[in-house]
Structure formats: C-alpha cells, structure tokens
C-alpha cells in the first residue's frame, strides 16, 4: 500500500497537471491498470528480489530468523517510505526494499560470526544496482531526446504550451497522455507490484508451508517433465564428476555453503548436488502430482529443490557446464523447478494490486504536487508529460522482461527533469537537491534500518524463548 503512495502516484502526475483527467478519475484509472499489470506479471522480478537474501534464511523462512527477516524488511521499508512521502519526496520503493535486504544480509553474517557480508548474493546485487543506477540516466536522457525529436518533427504549437487552467487539452493530445499514463501504470504493476508479491509469498511459505511451499496447481504433465529432465541432469553430473558418499543433510550443508559469495568451485559440489537431486527424484517418483506430496514433507522438499535450482544456476554462471546438450537440459530443469517452487497464486496478485491502488487513492497528492509543480520552473507541457511517461513505460517494461527491479519514481522524475532541461525551462534546484539527497540516503538508511530491526527481532524472539 505504501508503494502506491510513491510510485503509482508518479503515473498520474502528468495527466492531472495537464488537465487530461480529473484527479479521482486518474487515480482509479491508474489503479485498474496497475491491477492488470500485476495480474500479467511473470514473477521473475519477485523472485529476483528474493534471491538477494541469504540462502539460509530463504531455506528456513519459517524459523525464528526467517520470520524476523521478513518483518524487518516490511517495517524498515514502511518507515522510510512513509517518511519520504510525508515530506513529498519521490523516493524509490525499490531502493528502500533492496537496502533493507542488504541490511538483513549483513546483520545475519555478523550475528552468525561469519565473514562480514558473506551470505549476501553480491552478483545479484550488482545486477540489480546496475539497473537501478542506469534507469534514471536513461529516463533523463531519453525523455530529453524524445522531446527535442517531437519539436523537430511535430510543429503543432499547442503541444508545447502550458495547459490553460481547468481546460482539457485537444483530443489527440489527451489520447496520447492517457495512453502513456496507462502504460506507466501497467508497467509499474508488472514490475514494482512483484516486490510485494515476493515478500508476501515468503510470509505464506513461512507461516503456512503445507499450502504454499509447493505449487499445488502444477499438473501431472509438469511433474512428468520435471522427472525426465531430472534424470538427464543427474546423468550429466555423473559423467562430469566423481561420486562422494554423503547423506542428504551433508549434501544440503555443502550446497548452502557453495551458494555463498567468494566460495570457489570445488569437486565436492557436484557430487553433493547429484546426491540431493537423486533424493528429490526418488521422493517425487512416488507421486502423480505435487499436491500428492504429504504436507509434512513439503517444506523440506521445497528447500531441496530450491538448493538444486540455485546451485545449477551458479554452476552455469561459473562456466562449469560446457556441453550444449547439458546446458539445454539444465536450463529446462531449472524452469521446471521454478514452476514447482516459485509460483504466485492469483489471489496474492489481486491483493497486492488492490493495496497499490488503495495506496494511490489515499496518498497520491503529495508526490503528484512535487512532480507536477516543483521539479521545473515552468508548468509541465503536454509534450513534456507525454515524453517522460512514454520513456518510463518502455524502460520499466524492458526491465520487467529481464526480471530486473527498477524504480518507477527515479525513471519518471528523471524524465520530467530531462524534458525541463531540454525545453530550457529550468529546474528548481532546491527540489532537485532534496530529491537527490533522499535518493542517496535511501540505501544506507534502509541498510541500517533492516539490520537494526533484524537484530532486534531475533533478540526479542530469543527473550520470549522461541
């Protein structure tokens, strides 16, 4: 819901400040398209964010440490988002959540007497940070370039004039602005909405593992395909590496350590993976579908499948799977494992979408005023609003396709600033400085909050004797 205060409000700023839609109509329209975006999402971003967390906490999300992790992420993100919203600063909900995740990971490494930062998926962090850092630059540059291109190709003066008070723009301009608002709302739902879905699924897996650890909607043919590819992958592992005698518990420990950063490839990894994969295959061979797995066994089975999935991915990245046929088999097997353990029920998508829409309806005005009035020195023109939103729509949609979380706030506000610069309208430096300060402080502040709440949560749980 708090995400709706920030990011979804950005989508309606341009249509409100160009008199294209009335505020109430714009908010409801944006909410509907956010809902559709969430429903159409693949889940790749949701589980991309989850993969930033320490593997031990994800595997044991139902433990005291796992639940402390989830609630520390939620509390720290809510506190920072509410604070920046109250000040009218368009801060990034994506940066907020990822900063909190890093804080939890760092605190977890310290509290477990490990090397500082060990357990954080730094390679995934680099991918996410690259997307988060580049997207504002893309928004600024592309929106500015698009506005200049429009000026060169479209000579209609009405497009570049500030709206007359309470007067809607010409129909064709209005249609463009409604289209771009719709696109940004849909793209926001399909990208940012997934972050909330990922956290909600972690809570459900931890609290009700019998119902949410495995995808009960998987069909018998899905399980048959998984079993077939499992056999192929086991054959590949047998051909490449010598076997070692390990029981399942030792295999899981070996692979859990292997998934941590700075752990070099070892010959023991593949035998452990082979042993664990055979154990999973043997267990599933007795079932016709995943819903047949006894409820008491689902949490353990999900953890094993998650470890296999992540370990195979790391082996591919390390270049340890060279054969083309083996790569194809591993890739397909990973998709089958994802379908079994990384799923989002329809009702979860609807709940997250409704929360985003409700958040927009309650708190849209503070952020909309900043975007519409306080970034540029002149009033936002039709062409500026359309350029900024079109670039935001395309950028966020591309990031969603790649499974990368980006900030709607950063992309759109940077786009508005870019159009102001290209139009030589000038920007209000006080607002820009405050926004940049909020952007710079978001990550370190949320790292601190995430670590502090995680440590406090574990301490409280230990004091209560759980």
Strand and helix layout:
Blueprint: H1 2-17, H2 23-40, H3 44-50, H4 55-59, H5 64-86, H6 93-111, H7 122-153, H8 171-207, H9 209-212, H10 220-240, H11 248-258, H12 269-284, H13 298-317, H14 324-341, H15 346-374, H16 382-402, H17 408-422, H18 429-463
Helix pairs in contact: 1-2, 1-5, 1-8, 1-15, 1-17, 2-8, 2-15, 3-8, 5-6, 5-8, 5-18, 6-18, 7-16, 7-17, 8-15, 8-16, 10-12, 10-14, 11-12, 11-13, 12-13, 13-14, 16-17
Walk me through the structure.
- The protein has 18 helices and no strands.
- The relative contact order is 0.22.
- The radius of gyration is 24 Å and the shape is elongated.
- The longest helix is centred in the middle third of the chain and has 37 residues, at 171-207.
- With 466 residues, it is mainly alpha-helical.
- Helix content is 74%, strand content 0%.
- Helix 2 packs across helix 15, helix 7 (122-153) packs antiparallel against helix 16 and helix 8 runs parallel beside helix 16.
- It has two domains: 2-209 and 346-463, no CATH class; 216-341, no CATH class.
- Helix/strand structural class: mainly alpha
What percent of residues are in strands? under 5%
Which shape, going by the Cα principal axes? Answer: elongated
How is the biggest beta sheet arranged?
none
Mean pLDDT: 79
Summed up, the domain count is 2
Regarding quaternary structure, what we see is single chain
Distance between the termini: 31 Å
Number of helices: 18
Helix share bin: over 70%
- Spans of 5+ residues with little confidence (pLDDT < 50)? none
Element-by-element helix/strand order: HHHHHHHHHHHHHHHHHH
How many β strands by DSSP?
Answer: 0
What's the gyration radius in Å?
24 Å
């Amino acid at each position: 819901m708090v995400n709706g205060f920030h990011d979804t409000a950005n989508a309606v700023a341009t249509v409100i400040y160009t008199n294209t839609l009335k505020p109430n109509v714009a908010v409801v329209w944006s909410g509907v398209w956010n809902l559709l975006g969430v429903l159409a999402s693949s889940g790749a971003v949701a589980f991309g964010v989850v993969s930033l967390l320490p593997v031990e906490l994800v595997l044991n999300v139902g433990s005291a440490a796992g639940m402390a992790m989830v609630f520390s992420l939620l509390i720290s993100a809510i506190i920072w988002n509410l604070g920046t919203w109250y000040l009218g600063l368009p801060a990034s909900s994506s940066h907020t959540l990822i900063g909190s995740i890093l804080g939890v990971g760092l605190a977890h490494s310290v509290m477990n007497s490990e090397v500082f930062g060990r357990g954080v998926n730094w390679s995934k962090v680099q991918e996410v940070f690259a997307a988060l850092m580049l997207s504002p630059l893309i928004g600024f540059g592309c929106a500015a370039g698009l506005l200049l291109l429009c000026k060169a190709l479209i000579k209609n003066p009405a497009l570049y004039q500030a709206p007359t008070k309470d007067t809607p723009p010409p129909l064709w301009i209005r249609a463009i602005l409604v289209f771009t608002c719709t696109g940004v709302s849909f793209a926001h739902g399909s990208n940012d909405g997934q972050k909330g879905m990922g956290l909600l699924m972690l809570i459900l897996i931890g609290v009700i593992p019998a119902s949410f650890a495995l995808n009960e909607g998987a069909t018998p043919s899905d399980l048959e395909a998984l079993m077939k590819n499992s056999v192929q992958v086991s054959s590949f592992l047998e051909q490449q590496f010598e076997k070692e005698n390990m029981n399942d518990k030792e295999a899981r420990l070996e692979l859990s350590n292997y998934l941590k950063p700075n752990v070099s490839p070892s010959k023991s990894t593949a035998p452990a993976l082979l042993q664990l994969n055979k154990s999973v295959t043997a267990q599933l061979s007795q079932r016709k579908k995943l819903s047949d797995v006894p409820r008491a066994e689902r949490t353990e089975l999900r953890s094993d499948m998650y470890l296999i999935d992540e370990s195979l991915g790391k082996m591919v990245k390390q270049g340890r799977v060279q054969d083309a046929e083996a790569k194809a088999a591993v890739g397909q097997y990973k998709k089958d494992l994802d379908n079994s353990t990384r799923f989002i029920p329809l009702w979860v998508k609807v709940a997250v979408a409704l929360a985003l829409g409700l958040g927009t309806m309650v708190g849209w005005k503070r952020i909309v005023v900043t975007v519409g009035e306080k970034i540029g020195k002149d009033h936002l023109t039709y062409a500026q609003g359309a350029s900024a939103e079109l670039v935001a729509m395309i950028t966020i949609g591309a990031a969603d396709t790649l499974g990368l979380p980006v900030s709607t706030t950063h992309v759109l506000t940077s786009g508005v600033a870019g159009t102001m610069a290209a139009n030589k309208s000038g920007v209000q430096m006080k607002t820009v400085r405050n926004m940049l300060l909020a952007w710079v402080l978001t990550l370190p502040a949320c790292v601190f909050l995430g670590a502090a709440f995680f440590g406090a949560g574990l301490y409280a749980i230990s004091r209560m004797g759980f």
